[in-house]
C-alpha cells in the first residue's frame, strides 16, 4: 500500500516547497494527520511572495501522493513495446539491467549513444540536476534544454543584459500592472495576488494581453486579445505613441539606453493603424493602452513565457521590455519590466552537475528534437552516431515534446532501450523497457529557487515514501556504482550534503535553512531597477539588437551555433513574420495553451483535475464554426503537415476569428484517436538560440 507516515509523529504541520515547473515555487504548509498522512496543502502566509496563496491543484496534493495508480515497484516490459504487459522485478535487477544496456550501447556506438534525458518535473536542484553529473562522468550525449525558456530569456536579456528585474512584490505598489503573455490565474496565481492588492489598495489598473479571453483577462480592467505572434507590433505602436505624444522618457533614455534616436526613427511608420492591421486590435484599443501606460509612471510590465513560444518570440519579449525603457518606468518603485530573477541566485552547482569532468567536445542534443534524434535525423544527431539508450527522469516526452508522431516512432524502435523513472505510468513510461517508481517532493529533501520571485527555499522531507519507491538521486548513485564512476567528485553524497554545498556561497547549510525555511535574495532597489546601469558592458539597455553576438542565459554551445533563421531577426523592435502564418490551405492559427487544473502533463491523472477540465477540446470562434457547419460538442479534425487529430469543439471561448485554442496537455490516450495535441506542433529550432514554438501552428479544421 502507498502509506506515508510523518518522520516526527508529534508534528502537525510540515513546511515544504511546490516542486513543479512554475515560476512561483510556492512556500507550502502541509497538514499532517493523526493517521500519519498528508492532508490539506496551503500557501505559507509568512512568505512575502507566496503570501498564503497557492493554486487549487497543489492544494489537493493528497490526490497525487495517495493515487491508486501511482507506480510502486520496478517493472520490466513483457512483449512488444506499447503492448502494456509488465513483469515486476527487484530494484537490484532493474538497475543491473539498465547499466548493462548502457554498457552495450557504448560498446557498439561509443558513449554518446546514451542520452540522459530530463527536465523540470521537479525544480528541486538535487533531484533534477544530479543526472547531469552522471552524463558528464560517462561522456554521454549532452542535453540542450530548449523546450521552455530559450526565446523568453534570450529576448529579455537582449535588452537588459541580465536575467533579473524589479522586485515582483512591487506589483502591489504599482498604479498599473500589465500582465503580458501569461494566463496568471491558471499558471502563476501569485502574480494575481500582488496585482489585485495594488488594485484594492491603490486603485491600480490591471491590463492583460493574450491571444484569447482567458480567466486572467476576465479579471482585467483592460483586456487586449490579439492574434498569436503579433505582440511585437503592439509594443512598437505603444512606443510610437509615447514618442508622438510626449510620454517618452527622453532624459532617462539618454542616460540608460543605447540608441533612442535610432529607435524613434525606426518607429515613425509603426503607429496604431499599422499595428491594428497586424494584431487584430482596434486603433482605439491600442491608443487607450498606450495612453494608460504612457501617463502612469508606476507601470509594472509582468512578462510571461506564453507570448514567447512563437517563432518570433525573442523579438516579442525584447520589444515588450523596450516599452518600459522608452517610458522610463524602471526608475519608479512599482515600475519596470520583469520576467525572471534567475541570475540573482548564487548556488554553487559545480559538484552537483559534475562540472569538473565536463567535456565540451561531447555533442549536445536538442531536447525539443527528440523525435528527430531517435529516428536517425543526421542534423539532429550532429552528424554523429545514433542514440540507442536513454534514462528519462522528470519529463514525459512522448506526450510533451513536439512532433509527437516522430517521437513515438523513435520510442517504438526495437534497437532503442529506454528506462523511465516516474511516479505514474505516463505516455513515455508506457513505451519504456524498464520503469522505476519515483518519490514525490514531500518524500525527499531538496532545495528550490523561484524564478518568478527572489527566494531560495528548502523543501525538507516531510513524510516517509512507500518502501518500494526511490529518489532520483538514489538511481543516479546506484547507476554510477555499476558504471564505474562513483568515485568521481560529487558522487556518494546525500541530499543534505549536496544542499550544504549548494548554499556554500551564503554561509549556511541544511540545518540553518530548515529553521529559516527560505532566503530572500532580492537585490537592492538600484540594482534591481538597473539604476546603476543595465547588465551590458556599457550599462545601457539595448534597443539595437545583436541577435547572435550577445550572451544569453541558455545560449547553445559553439558547436551547435546560432539556431533557426536568425539572419531575419530585426535590428530594432519590430514585427517579423517568422511565424507559421495562416494560408489558404491552413486558415487557422493554433495555440496549445495551459489549462488551469493541469501543469504540463502533471495533474492530468488526478480525479479532481480531470473532472474540472472535462475532455480535450478546441475553442473555435462562433462565426468560424458556423461557416464550417460545426456545432458545440461536435467532433472536429485538426491537421497540418505533421499529422492530424480529432477533438471536440467548444464554440466561443473568447478567441479571435482564425484562431483556435486547445487548452491543457491531456494524455495521448485521453484523445479520441490516442494521439495528443503535440502531433501538430513543430520542433524546428527558433531563432536565434533555439526553442519550441508550441503556440505557433497553422492548421486546417473540418467537421469530422
From TrEMBL:
InterPro entries reported in the protein's UniProt record: Asp_de-COase-like_dom_sf, MoPterin_dinucl-bd_dom, Mopterin_OxRdtase, Mopterin_OxRdtase_4Fe-4S_dom, Prok_Mopterin_Oxidored, YoaE_C
TM helices/strands, residue ranges: none
Enzyme class: oxidoreductase
A Gene Ontology molecular function term of the record: metal ion binding
Domain of life per record: Bacteria
Residues covered by the 4Fe-4S Mo/W bis-MGD-type domain: 11-69
Its EC number(s): 1.8.99.-
Family to which the UniProt record says this protein belongs: Belongs to the prokaryotic molybdopterin-containing oxidoreductase family.
UniProt-recorded name of the protein: Anaerobic dimethyl sulfoxide reductase chain A
